[in-house]
Structure formats: C-alpha cells, structure tokens
Amino acid sequence: MNITTALSHATETKVFEVGVDALSRLPAIIRDLGIEERVVIVADENTYAAAGDRLEQILRNASIALEETILYPGRPVLQAEYEHIVELRERLRPVDALPIAVGSGTINDLVKRSVWELGRRYLSVGTAVSMDGYTSAGAAIVGDLGVLASAPKKMTAAGYGDLFAKIVAGADWILADELGVESIDPLAWEMVQEELRAWLAHPAACAQGEQESIAQLYTGLSLTGFAMQAIHKSRPASGAEHQLSHIWEMESLTLDGVPVSHGLKVAIGSLASCAIYELLLELDVRDLGVDERLRSWPSWEKREAEISSLAGEAAYAQQMKVESKKKHLAPEGLRDRFERLVGRWDTTRERLKKQLYPYDEMRAMLEAAGCYVRPEELGLSRERAVRTIRLAQMMRERYTVLDVAYELGRLDEWADRIFASDRYWR
Ligand SMILES: [Zn+2]
Predict the structure, then answer these.
(1) Could you tell me the distance, in angstroms and rounded to a whole number, from the CA of residue 144 to the centre of ligand 1?
(2) What does the pLDDT look like over 52-81, one tens digit per residue?
(3) What is the pLDDT of residue 104?
(4) Whole-angstrom Cα distance, residue 168 to residue 153?
(5) What pLDDT score does 14 carry?
(6) For residues 358 and 172, what is the distance between their CA atoms, to the nearest angstrom?
(7) Which of 172, 234, 371, 405 could hold 239 in an S-S bridge, CB 3.0 to 4.6 Å?
(8) How do beta strands 140-144 and 15-19 pair?
(9) Which are the contacts of 422, defined by CB distance < 8 A and separation ≥ 6?
(10) What is the mean pLDDT of residues 125-148?
(11) Residue 76 pLDDT
C-alpha cells in the first residue's frame, strides 16, 4: 500500500515525509496543514544537537514564530514517567503554540501524551529510526535522512528489531484468525505486511546508515503506526514478542544501568517466538489427544493460583489475573479449540510457514542489523528468560503462539527447550 492510501486511513497523521533534507520542508508542511499559530520545539540535548538547532534556524528563516524551545537534559536518560508528562502538559497549556517533538523515543512519547491530554495536536520530527508505530501519532511525521542515518547504531538496530517483530506478530494474528479468536483486518494487514519483507531486506545496510534502507525502515515503522491508528488497536504491530518485552519493561530491565531500548528487547522476544513456532510446526496436532490434556487442564481457581505462584508480589500480578481470566477456557472450550486446530491444521501450518522466516535466517538478519540475539546480551539469565515466557502468556488477553502452546500443554517444556538448547541460543 502506498503512503498516500495509508495516510487516508490514519486518523491522526495527515502528512508523512521522509527524505534528504526533509527538515527544510517543515515550514511548507506547517503552512499546508493550515497552522497559523506559533510553534514550540520540544527536545533533549541530544536531539537538539541532532536536529533541533537546525530546525530552529529553518523556522526562523521562514518567519515562523517560535516560542522558546523546551529543552530536557540529555543525561540521565529521560523516561516517559507520568510526572514528566504532567509537567510538560502544564508548561504547554498556557502556550498558544503548536508543539514540535524533536526526537523519536521518550521526547515523542512525552509530547504525544501531554498534547493528547490537552486535546491538541503536534508534529513529530524523528531523530532516529527507533520509533515504534505506537508512538508516531503526530499530525505530521517528518524524517530527515541525514539526521536519521547519523543516529547511534543501536537505535537504528532497535528500529529494525521493532519492525522485524511484525513478522512474528503477523504469525500470531494468522493463528488467532484460523482459530476463530480474532479475525484479520484486511486493511491493517495490508498496510503492515504487504511490503514488510522488502523493508526488512537490507539489515546490514541499515546498520551502516545507508540512506535508502533507512528510509524504508522509517516508512515501515510509520505505516505500522498508521495501521494502528486505522483500527484503534495494536494487534497489527504486536504479539507474543511484545508481551515478553513488556515483562522486561515492567521489571525495568537495564544494561550497564541504562534501560534497554524497546526494539532490542522486542528482537529477543521475536527470536523466542520464532523458536516456539518452529516447535509448534514440527508437531502434527492430529496426534494430540484432547482427553489427555483435559486431565491436567486447570480450573480457573487453580490457574489463578498458578499465576500467583509465578508472579508472586509483582505489581502486574493482578492485571495478569484479569487478562488471563478473559481467555481461560472451560473444558468444553478446550475441546472446541483442539477440534478447530486439528480441522484447520494443514491450512494453518501453510500460512504460518509462508509468514515466518526460518529461525536461522531470522537470527542472521537481526544480527546483521546490530540487534542482540542472545538473552545474555540483554543481561538476562536463561532461568529468567524461561520465566518471562510463562509470565508473558499470562500478561494479556491477546491470543498468541504462547497461548496455543499453553493450551496444548507444551509451553513449559518448549520454554525450557529453547533456552537450554544450542539450536536456539548458541
Ligand atoms: Zn514495538
């Protein structure tokens, strides 16, 4: 799907532009959007140096009225904590100016949320292709290739990891679709999946900052955001791999004292998900008897106790119970699920094989892009990684490969196997 068509389905973003010297086109974009008011740049010291400073000059030269730039320190790493959102919201409230978020990560998150609470809109200027579609909800999204290509390499790798996740997230949606849990929305599917393999085709070039590949990555991540805007849910962009990453986010996973980028966690999550898919696709589900599984199938009370024992005192335990209860099957529901899976196994397996890359290929691509490919590189022990797989299955109602593995009675065994095996985490 081309950008113009995709934009016509997005609810918030009206303009998308990525290109060489795209910053210099911002005055025209601001005027095309019919924005007569003043603008205010929001940046941190790093993103200000990367693009904010130049943008100020460009806007001044074009006689666009500027409020004083809101500048955050570059260190310590700024987090999108709610107190910062409140503070920014109150700074922006009396200012009659359109905010321009200069920065792809936290700065964009902070501005997005603050202006949303004020019922206003904003423009987003990317400084790295680490931006997840979740966050790109500006009225205009502008990526200057000179700026994007000079971003720190690990940020570009994170963007690649987050876009790569759409391969396994797509597989999860296929699975949910086949099992009658959640149908695929053809429009959102096309926006994300139609060109996904082309966007992902040049991991090494992305790592080297080659501009054409960076442009593809930025376009892909942004289209993912438009797909979520179009159907008001994150299913097009997120499956089991994001649930794993979500657990690590809630556990505040850091590496050398710095929070690990979302996309780098998602890349490890994608590999875990892909490994579980390989084990699933090796099975012939017709050989699995539902009666055997029913003997160990827990009642909801027992399931709740399982969640308590695994999540312990963690703040997210309560949320897990709420989410898991929504998808917990009664024995007759499990019987139906097995029947449907067996009945549709040939088509399901075909569709999944077509969607996924073989594990080795996927790992090589992520590695070439500069992503971490072993849990240890994120500072995770294998025990902790195994525990995360079990927790991630409890985290959200959204149906993924972790759920089918759980329902088949294989989740614990497979989690152990992928983290113990040289096949997967060598
Ligand atoms: Zn993401």
Answers:
(1) 21
(2) 999 999 999 999 999 999 999 987 667 778
(3) 82
(4) 24
(5) 87
(6) 16
(7) 172
(8) parallel
(9) none
(10) 83
(11) 66
CA of 270 relative to ligand 1 center, distance in Å: 11
Q: At what angle do helices 382-395 and 262-282 cross, to 10 degrees?
A: 80
**Which two three-digit tokens encode residue 58?**
């460009």
Q: What is the pLDDT of residue 131?
A: 66
Distance 161 CA to ligand 1 centre (A): 8
pLDDT greater at residue 14 or residue 203: 203
The one-letter amino acid code at 130 reads S
Q: Give buried/exposed letters for 398-407 (b at 16+ CB in 10 A, else e).
A: bbbbbbbbbb
In the prediction, which pLDDT does 328 show?
A: 97
Torsion of CA 10, 135, 371, 348, to 10 degrees: -50
Q: Do 161 and 362 form a contact (C-beta atoms < 8 A)?
A: no
CA of 340 to the centre of ligand 1 (A): 30
Contact 93, 86 (CB under 8 A): no
Please say whether the beta carbons of 210 and 277 come within 8 A.
Answer: no
Residue 114's contacts (CB-CB under 8 Å, 6 or more residues apart) are 85, 88, 89, 92, 99
**Ligand 1 centroid, distance to 178 Cα (angstroms):** 24
* Ligand 1 ion: Cβ-proximal residues, 5 Å cutoff: 132, 162
Q: Which amino acid is residue 111, in one-letter code?
A: V
